[in-house]
Specification:
The protein has helices at residues 3-23, 33-50, 57-70, 84-93, 121-124, 146-153, 209-222, 240-251, 292-303, 371-381; strands at 77-79, 102-107, 110-116, 132-136, 139-140, 160-166, 174-179, 188-194, 197-202, 227-231, 255-261, 266-270, 280-285, 306-310, 318-325, 328-338, 354-355. With 388 residues, the chain is α+β, with helices and mostly antiparallel strands. The strands form four sheets. The protein has a six-stranded mixed beta sheet with strand order 8-9-10-13-14-17, sandwiched between helices. Strands 1, 11, 12, 15 and 16 form a five-stranded antiparallel beta sheet that branches. The chain is globular. 33% of the residues are buried.
Length: 388
Amino acid sequence: MNKKFYLVLTSGVIVLFLSIGALLARTNTKDNSYTYLSIFSNVVHLVDANYVEEVDFNKVMDSALVGMVENLDPDSFYIKAADIDEYRKDLEDDKNKAGVGLTLVKRQGMVIVAAVEKGSSAEQNKMKPGDYIRTIDSQYVQPLPLYKVYHLLRGNPGTDVKVSIFRSALEKPEEFTLARRMITKPYTESYVVQPHIGYIRIGHLLPGVETEVENKLNSFNSQNATKLILDLRGCTEDDQATAVKVADLFVGEVPIVQISGRDGMIKKITGDAKIAYKGEVLLLVDFTTLGGAEVIAGALQDAGVAKTFGTRTFGRGGIQKLIPAGPNWFVLTTQKYLTPKGKMILTNGIEPTIAYKEDVKSVDETEDVDHMLQKAIDLLRAPVQKAA
């Protein structure tokens, strides 16, 4: 490697480290970034001197930055200078693009289905939460940031896209041809599942959902539904303010969520005592419960007004910010959510009060039966117990 290029490469690394360090709340001097720069420099020399072929250090640099940032948490990622315009355009065009009904997350470098939209092509093709996305139109997605994966999935209404997946129950990849459609999203659904037991499912926490939920709660009150199942599974699209308003319908004038930044300052968000339902509440949660839905679960659980039933939630409990670093950009988590009792949601998720364990042997995948919901109904049929 010529000396001029090495100086440019090392200078670029220094600029990025210094920019990130300054923007991430003025790194303490005891956390000496220059130690890591020295290690990086030594590795560059070692690879340049010993690797069997000449190395494309531009590519290596990008890969190093991707790995560094994506190892922070699932929602932080690196954007190359050449890609920032595409990223911003995708954000602007998102509402005008048709999708296939998949909400995706990244864990340990793998692209995973977090939720499947009702009525979508993905649901009709029996795709499930937990499926691993392998390729989209023959392009491998593992090295791509999520916004690029969504870019491949979305397009003009009526067009098709081929998606191959791995599933633990499958011996080899399975491919689906999914139709892109504009989906009118039902934000909530509700009904009485048993005498005196109401059911509300929240599909998305977008502005206005709190009014829908309040109206449904008032209806259940008039029907003497003294017990409620609040289903937060598959609730992935969220607005923090809406999540707080929904939680407020149950907890009233107590802390709902805390927001903490790098400076250690904690902001507490408290309800305004607008309690709409005082009956027994059981929340359904699992891996597909993300973000604002986790705020609701943490608030109701910590306030002692509800029990949670299911499996640990995903752990998307942060606020991200687009930050420039030299010519490149980073989306970094700059604030994190804590439950009212101070438990961190980011990466940890919410542990349910009552764990659900599916009997794999008794599950028939051809059946359209919600076994967790059935179990929840059985739990509420039992004698009333106060929430922990």
